[in-house]
Structures are given as C-alpha cells and as structure tokens.
C-alpha cells in the first residue's frame, strides 16, 4: 500500500472513532432523558385536587424555568415559555460558544432540524397548517450563544424534549470547554 492509501485509512479510522464518540454521547443523552422521565413520573403520578387546573382560569402569559445541570445543579440558563414560543437564554457566566460540540452536531442537527423537517413535511402534505412548523433563531455575539428562540413547538412533549436536549447539550459543552 502506498503512503497515500495508509493516510486515507488512518483518516477513515479517525472519522469512525469520532462517530462512535458522538453515538456514545447520544446514548448518554437518551439515558439521562429516561432517568428524568422516570423521576417525573414517580413524583407526578398523582395530582392533588388543589393542583388541578380550574376551568376558565387564564394561563399565565409566560413561565420561566431554570435550566440546571443534573449532576451538580449548576445553573445553565433559563427558558421563558409562552403559548407558542420558548426563549432559551444560557447563563452568561458560562460563555457557551456556538462552535463547541455537540451544539451544532446534536442540538441543532439532530433535535431542532429533525423536528423542523418533520413539520415541513406535514405542511407539504396538508396535515399541518402553513406557518405552524417549528422555526428557530440562534442569536450569537462574538461566537457566544446569547439566546435561542424557538417558535411553534406545538406540544408540551416536544417542548420537554427540546428543554432536556438543551440541558444535556449545555452540560456536555461545559465539560468540553473546561
């Protein structure tokens, strides 16, 4: 084999190792989600009558939730939730850079883009009203994520998936940048 062939094989090996690492991170993410779901189900299985929503009661305009790293409770940011929009603001002290993995490779490509493409397909087929598909904007200043605006998340399940994904992503980004 020529040295050029060996170099190609070495590059291929490197790419396979990178892909395996991504898949391991993805497996960890889904395991974390299952753990969170299990704990929520355990805690929220029974709703007290006092906690049940009252018919006709107006929902609050916006709900703000803190995003915390599960292993140590570190504040990763906040999410402001309205009827059809979620605004995710990373903790400014963390200086989370847009180029740190797995922000693009996982959160953008595997979470937001996949949901967006599914919605676009539903719009095309007519099963979803035009303009109701998920859309997002990422505001960046000097390479640092300022906020992520997600419109038309449509369901609480989707919103929870996005929130869990961003918590996992921000946690991994912190580990990689420290």
Characterise the protein shown here.
With 178 residues, the protein is α+β, with helices and mostly antiparallel strands. It has 2 domains: 1-44; 61-178, no CATH class. It is built from 3 helices and 5 strands; from the N terminus they run H-E-E-E-H-E-E-H. The chain has helices at 3-44, 103-125, 156-177; strands at residues 63-68, 75-81, 85-90, 135-141, 144-151. Strands 1-2-3-5-4 form a 5-stranded antiparallel sheet, with helices on one face. Strand 1 and strand 2 (75-81) form a beta hairpin. Helix 2 packs antiparallel against helix 3. It is globular and about 65 Å long. The model is unreliable at 47-52 and 54-60 (pLDDT under 50).
Poorly predicted spans: 47-52, 54-60
| Percent strand | 15-25%
Distance from N terminus to C terminus (CA atoms, Å) equals: 41 Å
Q: Tell me the helix content.
A: 40-55%
Largest sheet: number of strands, sense, barrel closure: 5 strands, antiparallel
Oligomer: single chain
N-to-C order of helices and strands: HEEEHEEH
Q: Estimate the mean pLDDT confidence.
A: 86
Outline: globular
Radius of gyration: 20 Å
Question: What spatial order of strands do you see in the largest sheet?
Answer: 1-2-3-5-4
Helix/strand/pairing class, anyone?
A: alpha+beta
- Quickly count the helices: 3
């Amino acid at each position: 084999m020529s040295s050029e062939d060996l170099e190609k094989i070495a590059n291929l090996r490197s790419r396979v190792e990178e892909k395996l690492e991504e898949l391991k991170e993805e497996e960890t993410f889904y395991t974390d989600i299952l753990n969170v779901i299990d704990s929520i189900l355990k805690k929220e299985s029974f709703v007290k009558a006092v906690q049940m929503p009252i018919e006709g009661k107006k929902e609050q305009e916006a709900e703000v939730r803190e995003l915390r790293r599960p292993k140590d409770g570190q504040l990763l940011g906040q999410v402001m939730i309205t009827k059809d929009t979620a605004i995710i603001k990373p903790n400014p002290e963390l200086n989370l850079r847009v180029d740190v993995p797995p922000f693009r490779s996982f959160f953008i490509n595997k979470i937001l883009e996949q949901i967006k493409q599914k919605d676009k397909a539903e719009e095309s087929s007519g099963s979803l009203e035009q303009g109701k598909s998920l859309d997002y904007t990422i505001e960046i200043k000097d390479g640092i994520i300022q906020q992520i605006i997600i419109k038309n998340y449509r369901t609480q399940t989707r919103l929870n998936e996005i929130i869990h994904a961003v918590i996992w992503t921000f946690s991994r980004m912190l580990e990689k940048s420290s």
